[in-house]
Structures are given as C-alpha cells and as structure tokens.
Amino acid sequence: MKKKNLFYCLVIVGALGFLMPLSIQAGQHRGLSDGQTLYVPAYSHIYSGARDRAYLLTITLSIRNIDPENAVTITRVNYYETQGKLLKKHIDKPKVLKPLESIRYIIPESDKSGGSGANFMVDWKSDKPVNPPIVEAVMIGTRSQQGISFTSRGRVIIPAE
Fold first, then answer.
1. What is the pTM of this model?
2. Contact between 100 and 68 (Cβ < 8 Å)
C-alpha cells in the first residue's frame, strides 16, 4: 500500500512540475512593452534605369497605436538623411495616441534631401506594458503613366529597460 501511495505522490508531483511552467507561461503577455526606440527606413527617392535616374517619392510615416485599451506617448519623431544628419524634428512635445489612434507625418515628393538612405527614429512609451505600435513608412511616386509604392516597417533598436 505504501509503495502505491508513493507512486501516486510521485505522479502528482511530476505532473505539477510539468504543468506549473505552462500555467505561468499562459499568464504572461508576450510581446508587450512599455516603450521602445524604432528605426524606420525611408526613401525620398530611388534610382532606376541605366543612368541611375532619381525617382522622387512622397514618404508618409504612419504610427498606429494598436492597443485597444491603452494610450501610448510618442516622444520623438526625427527624420535623418543618408549620411545620418538630422533634417527635421517632427514633434517638439510628446504626443499621446489614444487606443487605436493613428498619426502621420509627410515628407513631400519635392523634398529629396533625405536621399535613398533616409530614415526616421521614433521613440514611444507607455505607463504599462501594451501592444507596441506599428510604425511604417509608405513611399509612393508617379511619373508619366508609371507609379511605384512600397512600405518599410520600423525595427526595434532599443527595447524598453
């Protein structure tokens, strides 16, 4: 009888040892963050043809708060040129994005100062862990009867501490 009870105890302890980590994992919210610094590739123009002709593009930086319940605060939106020189600070004070709110910043087609290696640096934060915003650059241009459009998504370069 004692051997049987010992066996059942070992089975229960083994099962708890296996199931405990699963219950802890189920309670964790993966991918949530309370702030990040993002690098977003952008292109004020690209090159085409045998002569490397510049094809000018309009850039729209889109920042979307995808958290359905919590606000995020955008603290920096800076635009840099190919050699890394700061061209423009788009905000001078923090901008709060309510749940599911979006904001955009536009670099017009006529502004080719950014070059083919232009980029944005975007900082955001929140009071508690949230779904990180989606930050993308949308490039579009038309010439004669030809059009081109594409996107690039921001990449986390400094996660929240």
1. 0.79
2. yes
